[in-house]
């Protein structure tokens, strides 16, 4: 899939502090270097569940974990038919992981720089000295250049290519099983991939260190966003102000900025009845932390009534945002204020539609709401560093491996994410699957409609606007 260019890639690295920096100079005074990540480049911190997942994948495949304790690791989601994420360590993309939904498994895709962090105990080959230079330049490992191959290697496996001293000279995909490779006199053993020189510089650092390294940059971004909030407020005199809060990181960062700029304002929360329990708890905790009123826009039976007529929402038929969020929000605004000014955690790095969105707009469904996006030009890392600096309670779901917060059964979620949700919240998922099975039986749909990708996609679906626009 093609990369999506939604804005300038802002990720840099300080080799002195061993931290990501969102500009050309670290707070320590050192010049930073750009990190070559795949667009849109909305990298985020790797939380404990992310680290555990990556290390489990690498342990299973190569017999060694990838991410060491005490290092700043980041994840960068890249375009893929389901889910693929780059892993950044030491200022370099050292690997990626890709989910294969039909096989229900993750595959590791290491780069040579991964060898700065692990020594493979399985799925490796050893090349003859005479083949080293050609492999370093991207040539494949051929049978005459093979010295040894690990017994675990099967055709199609990702493997490390080592020299006789154990140093990594490349990575690639095995073309044959280990047993067959040992019998070959000619032909391709490993097709190399991404054999570029490593610029990873390993070194320990914490996220507190990363916050300090980005102090001036955060001050600049937060100051510009606060100026924007003041200007929008001044241009809409008499409009009651609120923050549209979802329990996610972006709306939390927006709330922090609005609170600093304007003081306490109500939280406007779309209570769809489809949220995770942790999201409900975060709304309560944040409101309590800042002493804020929560104005709930509650969905009654509208979602399930719509479901009974049209079936489940799909990636290309997201009627759910209008029915479960926008229309209830519009009702509560009209009842409570008549109209309002809502500050919203929209960012251009999220999607093409949000990149093309104006920074101030009126929603076509919720005409009584003027919306404004203070963090439109922030990346996810700006958001997280700002939250870490403030020390406020964020949604614990991020620490459990979710990178976006919304309805638990959102059809726009990757199958990798839905599998994790199904395993973590079996009762929630069983209720949803029961609804799906009822619709399946009523409409004579095949089993794969539920077990595969069927319910998430419509043959002739017409997508609706998302929950912001």
UniProtKB/TrEMBL annotation:
| Pfam family membership, one | PAPS_reduct
Domain (PUA): give its ranges.
123-197
- Signal peptide residues are none
Return the annotated region ranges for Disordered.
450-469
SMART domains the UniProt entry points to: PUA (SM00359)
Spell out the molecular function terms from Gene Ontology. catalytic activity; RNA binding
UniProt cross-references to SUPFAM superfamilies, sorted A to Z:
Adenine nucleotide alpha hydrolases-like, PUA domain-like
At the top level, the lineage of the source is: Archaea
Alphabetized InterPro entries for the sequence: PAPS_reduct_dom (IPR002500), PUA (IPR002478), PUA-like_sf (IPR015947), PUA_sf (IPR036974), Rossmann-like_a/b/a_fold (IPR014729), Sulfate_adenylyltrnsfr_sub2 (IPR050128), Uncharacterised_CHP00451 (IPR004521)
Which PROSITE patterns has this protein been placed in? Answer: PUA
Spell out the protein name for this chain: Phosphoadenosine phosphosulfate reductase
